Amino acid sequence: MRNIKLVFWGVLALITLLWIAADPAVFEARSVFALRGFMMQYSGLLAIGVMSIAMVLALRPRWPEQRLGGLDKMYRLHKWLGISALIFAVVHWLWSEAPKWAINLGLFTRPERGEKPVLVNPIEQFLSGLRHPAEGLGEWAFYAVVLLIAVALIKLIPYRLFFKTHRLLAVAYLVLAFHAVVLTSFDYWMTPLGIVLALMLASGIYAAVVVLFRRVAHGRQVEGEIVELTSFPGVRVLESRIKLQPGWPGHQPGQFAFATSDGQEGAHPYTIASAWDPANPEITFIVKALGDHTKRLAETLRIGQKVKVEGPYGCFTFDDNAPRQIWIGGGIGITPFISRMKHLAHQRKQTPDAARQVIDLFHTTADLDEAALARLAADAVDADVRLHILVDAKDGKLSGDRIRAEVPDWRNASFWFCGPVGFGDALRADFAAQGLDINAKFHQELFGMR
Description:
50% of the residues lie in helices and 16% in strands. With 450 residues, it is an alpha/beta fold. The strands form two sheets. The protein has a six-stranded antiparallel beta sheet, with no helix packed on it. Strands 9-8-7-10-11 form a five-stranded parallel beta sheet, sandwiched between helices. Helix 1 packs across helix 2, helix 8 (168-183) runs antiparallel to helix 9 and helix 11 (335-350) packs parallel to helix 12 (370-383). The longest helix has 34 residues, at 71-104.
């Protein structure tokens, strides 16, 4: 989380500092109308800047994933940037329209306009001729962005509708990029601000084209076939085992992948619940019926069905040198730990005398399925993991005090949490209050791609 916060605020600070350096006359503005032009430029630069970076992150690029802590963190940054773009665009629109409303209400007097300067530069003349269509198209693109981001943020709207409409943001972005090129102060282009803006726009335009042609992560997609389906009704979970075609690079326990079983529904992210064996190229997903799509999977999936798998992604891979680890899986958040236990069980067979980390796994669940819990217990035995199962109705809620009571030397442990975000944040704050270096030792999967 710390890295994405640094990037987010760093981007805003960079654009702000470059803009001030390019146009320090903003500090000499003495009236609302004098300030209006400066603030329209500033808010517009912020809006198109953060939206450009959001467009690039939509491509799921590999190079920033490790630096940002995984694709789940990248998507959180993508979401922040999208919301920020909306806020800055609204501010930009208000600076454009609010003074006009004030004049119409008689609150201000329209200032006299001086003579327009004669444009000598042919490029500036050309852009000036496009000003009217750029303003009109930009306004309509702004309305489209407001609607599309609202669809993305309102969880009650079905995922398939979000999937189909979210791509239209690429079209809106291209229109807004045109708007920005034409209406950005021409003097800015000859400054460091102009260079950075040009790079952002070029990257964003490239990303938008890739999105529109449906080529996002195309090279990381592998065809597969469902070979086994197992249902656990008590916990509303469906386990699917998929045989993969050649091309899958392998995965580490704790990573996730996007799977597409219905082209109309689009790709959904699922944590991988199996260890990787190159001699047996299969992958297992354990999916809980939580949304409109996942609730239908038990009815729509079938043995022999073709599935497209993309990935792997994520940095929730249990890599550290702590003498012991504490795992916490809330509900379906148990999935990455199942994958890790299968991996550890395989390691035990290969190198039975090797030194092992001491691991406690806390699994808290509101649902109960004896068959699922029996399989979880068997995996824990095979991996030499100490398992603590807490059923909410019988055992109550899991808390930091409870974990510390069960694991007295918790200060020597690293923590790996996957589950409801609020639950994870509460535990994180609890252990921070007890002196744990949460930035180094508390690893939390932010498994929310919308």
